[in-house]
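Appendix B, record 7
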Amino acid sequence: MSLSTSDTLGHGGPAVLALHGGLGWDSATLRPWLDPLAERARLTYVDLLGCGASPEPDDWSEVTNETWAEGVEDVRDRLDAEAGGHGCVVVFGHSYGAAVALEVARLFPDRVAGLVLCAPPPRPAHLGAAAARAEARLPNLPPETGPALRAALSAPPETDAEFAAAMAALLPLYVADPDAHDLGAFAGRVRFRAGAVRRSFYGLLAEYDPRSCLGEINAPALVLSGRRDWVSPPDEAPAELAAGLGAEHVVFERSGHFPFLEEPGAFASAVGRWLGRLADAPGPSLPQAG
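Structure tokens (predicted):
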């Protein structure tokens, strides 16, 4: 099944495929905040299988992180055939999209020139502490956030509408300063898909542990995290990935789970500098999009 992608932005530099989180969110969560990267790269946003405008799988029980990664590889291959310059790409992944990005690099090492892992998902061992951090923040958040959090932690959403309503109530928890952003408009732009979040967050995350495969990944990596991220603070999953991959780790001090939304200038600068260093690194030249 062919995945939905945006029009590619930019006309030069390395090709970058951008993967959203959730899962069950879509690429609207990344835009327009990643768009400035098109000044240094050729940027394509991808809606993963069962997310956004992409099709639903025939059987969710058969979907794994490998399935999602294979969909990304299909996108890369299609873009290369249509436009060229996508023989080897940088994969950006936010939240659960970072888990998919890691799987792309593991399965298709010759096709991945680099990884940018933003607010990567926690391992199961971290989930109890994450829930406690979330509860501690509730007194300073809208009254509907607490019931939505407890409902989300107790059972997965059954419908897309239920998932969309839950995320609208929960978004203040995900940013360091909810009053600084129009979170209603943010949620209103996203097509939430319940099947994908049931399979990823409520299913596969229970056994997610990337540490054993990090030695198989040779692509240069950049890890990004927000100091006030209750889901995945810098000293947990981001630190583990940075250590295991030998990656640079940039911490955004005034951000939660969405540093590109919360500190867009610093975010674009950090990723842009890294992409520039990647392109200038000695060794085989990084393929350039046409």
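Remarks on this record: Strands lie at 4-5, 15-19, 42-47, 89-94, 112-118, 221-226, 248-252. The radius of gyration is 18 Å.
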